[in-house]
Amino acid sequence: MTWMLNRELEKLGFEVSDLTYENLMSERYDLVHLHFFEGQTGFKNPFRVINRMGRLLKAIDRQKKLGAKLIYTAHNVVTHDAPWRKLEDWYVQQFTKRVDGTIFVSEVSVPLVRAKFPELHGPSTIIPLSDYGDFYPNTVSRKEARAHFGITESALTLSHVGLIKPYKNVPALIRAFKGIPGDLALLIGGRCLEDVLRSEIQQLASEDPRVVVDIRHLEDEDMQLFLNASDVCIFPYRNILNSGSAMMALTFGKPVVVPNVGSMPELQRRVNADWVRLYDGEFGVEALSNAIQWTRETNRGAGPPLQELSVTAVAAKHAEFYRLVCKTA
Questions:
Q1: Residues 6+ apart with CB under 8 A from 192
Q2: Where are the domains of the chain?
Q3: Is there a common fold for 2-130+310-327 and 142-306?
């Protein structure tokens, strides 16, 4: 989502460059903004983590000596599925000591992140995740999208789209779906980097012809096929703080089903209960059956009310916070 934010910030007059070691060591910036650590800490080799994080801190120190302010967006308390949790925590702690301003993406995340990294100081604000605006193509009709997957017009179609990781609980979704008979279809699309998880999903899907699985990196053009073919998007996360996938679905005008954890209740309040359904406890046949009934019986408008979550509105809030932090001595 950062590329969309950057595009909108440029419209507001900011000059935006990629946050790379080379740029940080060769240029001078007024502000450095980091969103995610996965690109620095998600390696199975711990020495690569040490090297990448060491270089990042060195480059940040150079920028701060030149007068730059450091902004951190706390999308999660910690990254998902970190190979070296203690090592990552130590380096993130060194990073947070350098932060001049923090953006939280939900109210519930504020005490959680501050408890994990109490050294965070300086101004802070809450800016929710934005929608995806017009970034992804959306020209394929429902009928065309369903024809692509061989789904009939009558089938109530569920989907799970996005990078597939263990915490996203996709096998549980397929198992629950297999336990519900009827004119239904389930689409699973996205890249999966774990061989065992990929094999499990493919095996489960092969046992029910109503399940369509496409486990690969989805190009921008592919997203509309999955989402426009869908009636509802199901995200049975084991744990979650914020969900870009849910925002993607809402951008395409699709209701979402998510667990009653993290910032999902806040998302429901910002949008409304016609578009965001929460469930409690473990995800299974009961939760999915209730979600299907909710999808069928809820009368919705043309699309969810996302005006306050538009990428333009969210970029304006970022610009306001940037200016505040840069003015802070």
A1: 163, 164, 165, 198, 201, 215
A2: 2-130+310-327, 142-306
A3: yes
Cα 255 to chain center, whole Å? 16
**For residue 137, what is the DSSP state?**
-
Q: Where are the beta strands (DSSP E) in the chain?
A: 31-34, 69-74, 101-104, 124-126, 156-161, 184-189, 211-214, 232-234, 256-259, 276-279
* Residues in Cβ contact with 219 at an 8 Å cutoff, skipping those fewer than 6 apart: none
Q: What are the pLDDT tens digits along the chain (329 aa)?
A: 688 899 999 999 999 999 999 999 999 999 999 998 888 888 889 999 899 999 999 999 999 999 999 999 999 888 777 778 899 899 999 999 999 999 999 999 999 999 999 999 999 999 999 999 888 999 999 999 999 999 999 999 999 999 999 999 999 999 999 999 999 999 999 999 899 999 999 999 999 999 999 999 999 899 999 999 999 999 999 988 888 899 999 999 999 999 999 999 999 999 999 999 999 999 999 999 999 999 999 999 889 999 999 999 999 999 999 999 998 65
Q: 138: Cβ–Cβ under 8 A, 6 or more apart, which residues?
A: 224, 228, 252
Backbone angles phi, psi at 112, to 5 degrees: -70, -45
Cα–Cα distance, 68 to 23 (Å, whole number): 13
d(CA 72, CA 238): 25
CATH class of 142-306: alpha beta
HSE value, Cβ hemisphere, 13 Å, CA-based, for 116: 19
Fold annotation for 2-130+310-327: Rossmann fold (3.40.50)
